[in-house]
Design brief:
29% of the residues lie in helices and 26% in strands. It is built from 15 helices and 21 strands. The protein has helices spanning 8-13, 29-32, 34-45, 137-140, 169-173, 176-184, 206-213, 219-222, 224-234, 284-291, 293-299, 346-359, 367-380, 405-410, 431-447; strands at 15-18, 23-26, 50-54, 63-69, 72-78, 84-88, 103-105, 108-110, 117-119, 124-126, 148-154, 157-161, 191-202, 255-260, 266-270, 302-307, 311-315, 320-328, 331-341, 400-401, 416-421. A hairpin with a 6-residue loop joins strand 8 and strand 9. Helix 3 (34-45) crosses helix 15 (431-447) and helix 10 (284-291) packs across helix 11 (293-299). The protein is globular and about 80 Å long.
């Protein structure tokens, strides 16, 4: 089916949301239909707020980095006055890319094709041989500057939208801002991306990664190699004394929960019986003095957060930032960063990096396990004889609307949640993302008159 042939009724048929009767089902076409993918790019990524980076990635005047909003190439830059902004990475003359590097510092970008130049505020400052160009008046009336993109910032988290017809960033993030605060407040000056970014692709749908971040159910079955290594270290069978990583064997008995926020954001969290093994614990006293006991407890807790649709902050073994870029219905690019508090001690930073290398990094023990699992799922989605998945059923009898004891302790007011032993491995945490998925696409279809 072509994208412009999909109607409201087609979108409705892909998700069964009947929680009152204990049913929430997702159709396999969400992961394998190119027409669905086209709608996702158009209405979820290109008419929505999308995460584009951290302010620490461009700390100085004229610093910049390049990224994507959906399928559109973007430059995020700090101009000579220090103001951040975002632009389409395409020359207004012939459309060529003007910034070629992942990041850098430049007072201006000069198009390597015909020499037009633009400053870091996006202004066209030079058109080669303009006076001799015999340009007519209509050309002179054109805006030659780089195309600006709607830009927003919450603390050090940067977002942009190709459409001006979006709610405020404050409304988009809602109470999920308080989960971002648990990331940002790990240091008195916030957090930063530690050098050593990695990018990789996997051959599966982008929503596999969205789900994985808040999928606790897979831990004990998908990562046995990692768990066995951690157990052997604890038993003294390893000479590796450099790192103490999370022991998933203790997770099934700790108290935790899940929460869904409006517009697709979601989080899983659990108390941490081994908070002294985290890098941040080195500065716990300072954090308590600045943020209080309860907030510090939850900063040291296990938390995996998805800010829909494209960024995740996973804090279970070190602190990782994942940026999701869908390439096609069955191919996704991931860019991952180790995150640390600005100005933290060498001791704290070393713990973070060693734990990150052990579990999260592309050379670590977790990421390859997960990507192989995604690709196995995508392989199975070829089975057109099968329609529905059964992966949204766990936790249904514990599902509730509004906050619970733990979410109130954290200070959030989610739409829905689940609370209990982590061993329940709740899957109702996916509901918010799929409800937002449906709403974004239906709102887009309606705005385009495709009812």
């Amino acid at each position: 089916m072509k994208a412009n042939e999909l109607k409201f009724s087609d979108i409705d048929r892909l998700i069964v949301d009947n929680v009152e009767q204990g049913e929430f089902w997702v159709h396999r076409d969400l992961y394998r239909d190119p027409a669905v993918f086209e709608l996702e790019m158009k209405y979820i990524f290109e008419r929505n707020w999308v995460f584009v980076g951290l302010d620490s990635q461009a700390p100085n005047p004229n610093d910049y980095f390049t990224t994507w909003i959906g399928r559109q190439p973007i430059i995020v830059a700090r101009d000579k006055q220090g103001k951040l902004g975002a632009f389409i990475n395409s020359c207004s003359h012939k459309g060529a890319r003007i910034a070629h590097h992942r990041d850098g510092n430049a007072k201006q970008w000069v198009c390597s094709y015909h020499g037009w130049a633009f400053d870091t505020a996006g202004a066209c400052i030079y058109i080669k041989d303009q006076d001799a160009g015999c340009y007519a008046e209509p050309f002179n009336k054109l805006d030659h500057n780089l195309k600006k993109v709607k830009f927003g910032q919450y603390r050090g988290f940067l977002f942009a939208s190709l459409s001006d017809d979006v709610p405020s960033l404050d409304e988009h993030l809602g109470d999920a801002k308080k989960m971002l605060d648990l990331v940002w407040d790990q240091g008195p000056e916030g957090i930063e991306a530690i050098p050593g970014v990695s990018s990789y692709t996997y051959n599966a749908n982008w929503k596999m990664q969205v789900e994985n971040c808040i999928d606790a159910y897979h831990l004990t079955s998908c990562h046995p190699s990692f768990m066995n290594i951690v157990s052997r270290r604890k038993a003294g069978e390893s000479r590796n004394k450099q790192v103490k990583s999370i022991d998933f064997n203790v997770m099934d008995v700790v108290k935790g929960g899940t929460a869904c926020f409006p517009r697709g954001h979601a989080v899983i969290y659990a108390t941490n019986p081994l908070e002294n093994e985290r890098g941040m614990f080195v500065h716990r006293d300072e954090a308590v003095a600045r943020c209080g006991e309860t907030k510090t407890k939850w900063m040291l807790a296990t938390r995996n957060l998805t800010i829909y649709p494209n960024v995740q902050f996973a804090e279970n073994a070190s602190l990782q930032m994942r940026v999701i870029r869908p390439l096609s219905v069955d191919k996704t690019e991931m860019t991952i960063y180790c995150i640390g508090a600005k100005g933290e001690s060498d001791a704290a930073r070393e713990i973070r990096i060693r734990q990150y290398e052990d579990f999260f990094n592309t050379s670590g023990l977790a990421t390859p396990d997960d990507t192989i699992a995604y690709e196995d799922c995508q392989f199975g989605f070829r089975a057109k004889a099968l329609d529905w998945l059964q992966g949204t059923a766990r936790g249904m009898t514990g599902y509730h609307t509004g906050p619970d004891e733990l979410s109130q302790e954290i200070g959030i007011q989610p739409d829905s949640g689940f609370m209990g032993a982590m061993g329940a491995w709740d899957e109702t945490v996916y509901f918010g993302g799929y409800r937002a998925w449906k709403q974004f696409i239906k709102d887009g279809l309606e705005a385009d008159g495709l009812l």
